[in-house]
Amino acid sequence: MHQILDKIQSAETIINPGSATTCIDPGLVADSRSVRQRIASARFNIQVGERPVMKTMARVEEWRKTIKDSEKKRLRKMILDL
């Protein structure tokens, strides 16, 4: 966190050498959550994002099965027509 603020301040100094301090309040940027809370939040985000992915994968698998079956029928009909 402090590294990011230091980088912002050095970039601001390069852009505007006349400014003495950065105008970003470190209190607003700081994350007051514990490491355990951040890990739990990350896990929750992954679980929430996992449901739509699984649903989409199931739809794609169903679509592939439908295409595979229809192609089998088409080829079977084509062979019978010969």
Number of extended strands: 0
Estimate the mean pLDDT confidence.
79
Helicity, as a percent range: over 70%
- Structural class of the secondary structure composition? mainly alpha
Short description:
By secondary structure, the chain is mainly alpha-helical.
Write up this protein.
With 82 residues, the chain is an all-alpha fold. It is built from three helices and no strands. The longest helix has 47 residues, at 35-81. It is elongated and about 85 Å long. The mean pLDDT is 79.
Provide the fold topology.
Layout: H1 2-15, H2 26-29, H3 35-81
Key attributes of the depicted protein:
82 residues, single chain, mainly alpha
